[in-house]
Amino acid sequence: MRAERVIFLVEDNADDELLAMRALRKNNVADRIEVARDGEEALSFLFKKTPRVEPSLILLDLKLPVVDGLEILRRIRADERTKLLPVVVLTTSSEERDIIASYSLGANSYVRKPVDFEQFNEAVRQLGLYWLGINEKPPVRRFEEESAR
Q1: Which domain holds residue 101?
Q2: Distance between CA 128 and CA 20 in Å, rounded?
Q3: Residue 123: which CATH number?
Q4: 72: Cβ–Cβ under 8 A, 6 or more apart, which residues?
Q5: pLDDT tier at 144 (50, 70, 90 boundaries)?
Q6: How many domains does the chain have?
Q7: Cα(5)–Cα(101) distance, rounded to whole angstroms?
Q8: For FRET with 106, which of 58, 74, 100, 148 sits at 20 to 30 Å CA-CA?
Q9: Mean pLDDT, to the nearest integer, of 144-148?
Q10: Is residue 146 part of a domain?
Q11: Would residue 61 count as lying in a domain?
């Protein structure tokens, strides 16, 4: 039995959220899509939810209210429970400093959001195919198991 494919979309722009949701559903990429609309909500989902839902893939915008995407990425990589989760930065920024900072903090990929819906749809389709189909995930080690050691 295959594990549930959960995508965690962290996106504050309602139009971009709608486009991403439409593209993810159209391409049948995930079994479930969870959304956070600001950085605080994203951190709450990742670290305070009980029982904790482990996403198969995080699509992370950088320019977020309350807590920005780079800080979220920093916290994801600093925590034993989440440090191996695949994180794709999906943003409008093409700033070199954002690209460098994202990779320096452990992003698995950096994708600039295409403006055109068809290009956006294709980008999301390819992300889903690669990260949820082709990519080999590390073995799951539950936080509770780690704590018991």
Answers
A1: 6-136
A2: 11
A3: 3.40.50.2300
A4: 10, 39, 42, 43, 46, 60, 64
A5: very low
A6: 1
A7: 28
A8: 148
A9: 48
A10: no
A11: yes
